[in-house]
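Here is one chain, start to finish.
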Amino acid sequence: MQEKLLKLLKVENKEQFVFFQIGAKRPVPDESTLNTCLKRILKKLQIEPVITIYGGRHTYGSIKVQEGVPLEVLARWFGHKDTTTLRETYIHLLEETRDEWFEREKRGLGQNMGQHQKGIKKSLL
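Its structure:
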């Protein structure tokens, strides 16, 4: 759709930005401008709660951390030079995810290590 609109308006998007401004000092709109547009779109679509661009980015990052996406991958997606900022931001999720996996594995191994379950002894194989 963006391509059709740009063609109709005879405007080029050489950098292939998702968001950009025509005739402004900077080609990319600032966060405040994006938040204003996002708020208007969410209101029109009757989507609540209204979030900010930063909130959306943080939510996306949180979901990806919980899915187990490596921080190195997220750092690259988010344009960070390393994982330091992400590690500080998402440390609580990393710990929760680690603990959840530990408990799942513990339960799974407990069922397969010769313990009786409903009178049936399970083997390691």
